[in-house]
Design brief:
Elements (H helix, E strand, L loop, with lengths): L4 H17 L9 E4 L15 E6 L4 E6 L22 E4 L3 E5 L4 E12 L2 E11 L4 E5 L1 E2 L5 E2 L3 E4 L2 E3 L3 E5 L5 E10 L2 E12 L2 E10 L9 E11 L3 E4 L2 E5 L2 E7 L2 E4 L7 E3 L2 E5 L3 E11 L7 E8 L4 E11 L3 E14 L8 E14 L7 E10 L3 H4 L13 E12 L5 E12 L4 E16 L11 H4 L2 E15 L13 E16 L3 E23 L4 E23 L2 E6 L9 E17 L6 E7 L5 E8 L14 E16 L10 E16 L10 E9 L4 E10 L1 E3 L5 E5 L9 E14 L8 H12 L41 E12 L6 E16 L2 E10 L4 E2 L3 E8 L2 E8 L6 E8 L8 E6 L6
Antiparallel strand pairs: 1-4, 2-3, 4-6, 5-6, 6-7, 7-8, 7-11, 8-13, 9-10, 11-12, 13-14, 14-15, 15-16, 16-17, 17-18, 17-19, 18-21, 19-20, 22-24, 23-24, 24-25, 25-26, 26-27, 27-28, 28-29, 29-30, 30-31, 31-32, 32-33, 33-34, 34-35, 35-36, 36-38, 37-38, 38-41, 39-40, 41-42, 42-43, 43-44, 44-47, ...
Amino acid sequence: MRINNFQILFTLSFTIFINMVGLAQDRPKSGGEIKPVKSADSISVNIRDVIETKEKDEGATTLLTEKGQDSTKIDSIKPKPEFLTDVVTYKAKDYTSFNNKEQKLYLYNEAEIQYEDMEIKAGVIVIDYNKNEVYAGRIKDSLGNYSQNPIFKQGAQIVEPDSIRFNIDTEKALIFNSRTEQAGGYFDSEISKKENDSVYFVKNAKFTTSKNREDPEYYFLLRKAKVVPDEKVATGITNMFIYGVPTPIGLPFAYFPLTKKQTSGVIFPSFGEQNQRGYFLQNGGYYFAISDYVDLAVLGDYYTNGSYGMRLESKYNLRYKFSGNLGFRYENLITSERGFSDYAKNTIYNIRWSHNQDPKSSPNSRFSASVNLGSSKYYQNSINQINAPSFLNNTLSSSISYSKTFQGEPQVNMSATATHSQNTNTETINMTLPTLQASVSRIFPFASETGSKKGIIQNINFQYSFRAENRIATQDSLFFKKEMWDDARSGIQHSIPLSTNFKLFKYFSLSASSNFQENWTFRTIRKEYDLDLDEVVTTDHNGFDAYRTYNFSTSIGTTLYGMFNFEKEGKTPKIQKIRHVMRPSVSYNINPSFDRYYDSFEVVNADGDVLEEVEFTRFEENIFGSPNKTYSSSIGLSLSNNFEAKVRDKDSTATEAKKITLLNNLNFSTSYNLAGDSLNWSPVRMTGGTQILNDKLTINFGAVLDPYALDNNNRRIDKFNIDNGGSLFRLTSANLTMNYNLNNASFGGEDKSRRNSREENLRSGGRADDLFGVAQDFADQTFNDNEQEETEVKPSELYRYKIPWNLRLAYALNYSNSIRQNEISSHSLMFSGDIEFAPRWTVGASSGYDLKNKGFTYTQLRFERDLLSWRMNFSWVPFSTRSSWNFFIGIKSSILKDIKYEKRRQPDQQL
């Protein structure tokens, strides 16, 4: 056997060489941690010897360590900063691999890495320990398709690029084809450079609010821009693209706010032209974000003929305490130009305040306010579109109240209220400043301490109530002037009602009550006839005076039930049962005569002959009324009826019949005056109502039936109508109202914009519906819901699209025949509705027709087109003195709401 020494030596040498310079590639587990290694200081001081220095004179002991005295405590050579300051966790689905030669860690397929507040998810991730960088990218399959785009998250910022390079030391990043969202806006950038946590620089970025990221309806091309997340975007030359087509709408520089917080800022105005006031800027101003609890918007209008307006709107809200809003509106309106015959000038204002207290904040006290006051002609003359449906308001009313409850037995309630009522037609104003009230809860002096109260004695109870009021009646022109207080009237009323109730013969309920009142006043009158002036002269007398009254009443009633059964054995008719509930009642009232409070004076002629004797009471102008002079004793009769039915349900799976209301509260009432010498019977009043068509149609009706006849002068006479050749009753008046709310199933809920519009109508003293039109200012985001969720409609082979629609109808009919006029006093039909005749296309109208006068009432036509990220609205009042139209198109998003176009024609009103 021959040994080859050369081959053996070569093999051993190659093996040693491989072991010395060869690097192996391992395949660790799919997850792991890399912990930072703390480097030890080259200079270590571990001396703990303590030198004790005793000061004999002072008797003190000073402890010094050698480490504290070492000159090398402050090292001039700083240690090298560590590569990692926190634990790095990573994982991947397929494999993780570390290349020792390249000093790189590879993660493949569903790779994830977390370091401090940074998180990266991607198809592939590479960590380069030499450059301290992290690279993340997509995975490419055999067909060339990419998947698993990187998702880079740091703090609250999320970026979705094609690939990313991130430096761990500087925390800077270079991002390619990134996608990110900022405060409702979306950025798609070719190249983005992350400078730090608060600054990004982007190149050729698309900024839009469109939900369609692949094919946005519009975007702004930002060639170079600086992005401060959740704060702002500052860019150079930019212009708008609509469906990828560039438009001439461009700016040399631009600024886009991105804050998610409430911030102050400028409110851009709308512009237009009006025939009698020239060109105008409207609803422009500034928004003040005062705090998280209160804000303020200052808006103004200006017209080139000198007219101007101002609006202050503020909202406040303190959670679990209270909330409200406050508004002040002022307009100085000038018609035409100075020197022309139609020149006119007028100032109008309106103050509104609404305050609501959370019931849980203070269970025993409550403060609330609802204020709507100002010029009587404010809503008629205002040129602000928000007030369009409110110009038909006839009254303005306000109420501010504070109430306090003192718990105990008995319980005491106190309240202070200020009210205001204003008729916009007559311009009269009635106010109570203030009204003070106090009451003690019911006291049962004879009730047993345990168990329920039984019998006439145990149910005896009384109360005490106190009311002090100061009333003011004035005119709009004297509002808040000195003359307003001259005719103020004050008074105080004390009331003590005493009552009881009990069962009689088991089926009858009997109640009896008496009421004692004492009224105090501080001003009385005196009347006398002045022969020289030939008229009655009334003189006011200031000073305290009082009168007392009392009355008594009792009533007895019962409840009767009737059932009509239509069911037969083996048969189930559609109408199975009808239930009739009757509640008859008989009452007796007696009011004594208090003629001792009455005086009289004589009306004489020049010869001294007495023509007549006139009685009066010095309490005629008392705010709580004057004492009763005529003795009355009357019996009252009333009958209440309810009709219900059980019908077979259309649903065959239903186990029970369906209950419906046929007539709800069909009431009849009249009275007989025992103390009267004629016309003892009062007219019979009938009222009733029902709801049909699944409670969609509400019907209310009423009538007055007079049993007495009329003479040739159309005056009531003491003779029954049936004895005068007529019927048993004479119909003197009747009314019928119907309200119909019908909608498609898709209109199950109403949108936020319609709710806000109706709330605006209510705050202005108007209706709770939109039969008089919709209060809307298209440029005001308050009246538009821009955050509505878009529901995707799935296409179908057959066209089965349900058209959403809603319809509101109001019908009113009034008949009068009190003096044989036999006429329809009013007859009208009002309607309001909306229909979405195609996806995102909606039209609506509010109008009415006066069937008596043959004419249309106030009419408003509405058109709306949802353009995804945009919205387009058109409103038109085609006729009447309020004829006007308004066109608006703008971006929905609040951060770009000033990108809009609005054109309007306002009504030209004569002041």
